[in-house]
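Homework help board

Subject: predicted structure for assignment chain

Our instructor gave us this sequence and asked us to write out the predicted structure in token form, then describe one feature. I got the tokens but I'm not sure how to describe them. Can anyone check?
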Amino acid sequence: MDPATLLVALLVVSVLVWALFLGFVGLLGYRLIGRAGQGWLAFQAAFMLPGPRREVIRLRVQLTREVRGARKALSTIDANGATRGELAILVRRLERLAQTLDSQLRLLSCEPDEEMLRGFLRPARQRVEEFVGATRRIRQVALAVLGGETDDTLHRLTSDVDREVLALQAGVDALQALAAQQLEDKH
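My token output:
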């Protein structure tokens, strides 16, 4: 094989290996970003330089996590057949509000005027904190509902077990007394 063909073959193999490596790294990065829950937002928040724009991105990530937590609480209540009251309506209202807040934050993240960005960041942060408080209360209520129903079910189950154990013990005692009576009658 002449050196020019060998060089071309080596170059082609090098390009293929490099492409495979970049594809693997890209896939790995994509999966890691996806696992973070918010994809590109989480990636931006992690690698953006500190400053008001990074704070805006973090607020968006927090908003997304809170909506997901409220949805999860509601779906857990539904999956367990627990009483949910008006929680479904409240979660839908929170989702609509989250969309509005996220739109405001998206617009704020593109604001070219740093002074205006800083001026609007504080009220945006307060809105997100109030939103977080509302979703936290929904999760607390969900836990309380599930805990209350679990406590009630557990109390009833424990009472049933105690009654069954007493009944079985009484049956065993009666059988032992009968067996003892039969032994005495034979002797």
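Reply (TA_rk): Your tokens look well-formed. For the description, you could write something like this. Residues 114-186 form the longest helix (73 residues). That's the kind of observation they're looking for.
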